[in-house]
Design brief:
This protein has about 70 residues and is of the alpha+beta class. The protein has one domain. It contains two helices and six strands. The protein has a four-stranded mixed sheet with strand order 1-6-2-3. Strands 4-5 form a two-stranded antiparallel ribbon. The longest helix is centred in the N-terminal third of the chain and has 9 residues. The protein is globular, with a radius of gyration of 12 Å.
Length: about 70
């Protein structure tokens, strides 16, 4: 399992490659992602370096390298 903040474009590339992921972000950001093996949840607040962070252009992605599909 790997966690990372990334741009919507970076997350879209992961999805297009078939990476299984859980993604959190603003409704606007999630709506820009392609269909694929991911599930999302809306949130715009994330902790980064010990302080709250609000960034609607990025999403928080957890990937599961060993997973091959989402049911």
């Amino acid at each position: 399992m790997k966690n990372a903040m990334m741009s919507v474009a970076e997350a879209a590339r992961l999805i297009q490659r078939g990476t299984v992921a859980v993604i959190a972000g603003s409704e606007e950001a999630l709506s820009q992602l392609p269909h694929g093996p991911w599930i999302g949840s809306t949130s715009v607040y994330f902790m980064s370096n010990g302080s709250p962070r609000l960034d609607r252009r990025q999403v928080f992605v957890t990937t599961f390298p060993a997973a091959r599909a989402v049911a």
